[in-house]
Amino acid sequence: MVKIKWASVRRGLLLSLILWLILREVAGDIGGVIGFVLATIIVGYRVNEGYKSGSIHGALVGMVGGIIGGSIILILYLIGLGDIGKQLWPVTGVIEATIVIILYAIVGAIGGTIGSAIKKVRQNST
């Protein structure tokens, strides 16, 4: 049974947001994706409990981040700022949003696994 370290997930969400904002300004949408992947790799590395734990924590960063981001976009639409919402996240339907959140979770899990693998290699090399 994997124990979820919610502090690591929260830090990963914050790091993901910061990297997404910075790298999106530098390199466009692909920079935002790179920032998200880097954040999940760092979360997997920092959890330090094996591949499964890194994968789960990375997936949680992706899912929770997608849900929070989707909720913010929904609020923007509801208060009449749909154009801003569409620029931030060009997903307009519930099914599309669900698919995107699942994809975030998959990419986050892959990033978390990569971070855990890097940690294992570093531990074994010392």
TrEMBL record:
Keyword terms of this UniProt record: Membrane, Transmembrane, Transmembrane helix
| TM regions (residue ranges) | 7-24, 59-79, 99-118
Q: Which InterPro entries match?
A: DUF5518
Its protein name is: Uncharacterized protein
Task: Say which species the protein is native to.
Answer: Methanobacterium formicicum (strain DSM 3637 / PP1)
